Amino acid sequence: MKRNEEGIAERLGLFAFSLSFLLSSTVEALPIYLQERRVLMKEASRGAYKISSYMIANTIVFLPFLFAVAIIFSTPVYWLVGLNPSISAFAFFTFAVWLIVLMASSLVLFLSAVSPDFISGNSLICTVLGAFFLFSGYFIPKEIIPKYWIFMYYVSLYRYPLDSLLINEYWSLRDECFTRDLRDNSMCLVTGKDVLKSRGLEEQDTRWINVGIMFGFFVFYRVLCWVVLARRVSKTTI
Fold first, then answer.
1. Which of 105, 133, 100, 95 is nearest to 26 (CA)?
2. What is the pTM of this model?
């Protein structure tokens, strides 16, 4: 990607598309979770093991698998597209992708626990992800989101990784010029700091704060799933 005004728009589009692809691709795990739930209800209700044991095992199994997915996705995309050539920026990009798929898997796991079947679960997941994307700040800036919908901006799974990827791309390039005046080439019109300012991200590097929030979402949805499954087991008759 070129370092000009067109390249700025292309980078933002790439990050938004990547987020949409990564979050929506985890829907494929829904049938697996639904099949596991049937077995889990029978075995847990008989006291074969606890729901907490299942949740811990599920998390341990998926952590390295999803990390491999993050590496396989990030390595070609990052270098072929031509993002920030810093090794540290690439490492953070890969780490962020890993957290994104972890968040998404937790959300799908939770929604599979509350869904009666695949069709309902698939519809619910698509609706939730669509709402999160709509209020991420990509389509509708925070400033013009209605007050009664502003809470969606703060709970959106898209917002924090999108901000993190933008900061990761431009923070070390804050003083670099991306657009110059056609009449006076020495005059810079848009710098990396201006790109961050358009998203309200120019004041401080909040990447690791966003990482903490994304990890919180990962844990939160798994705890919710544990609560729902434990309640289902308590109502299951042997």
1. 105
2. 0.90
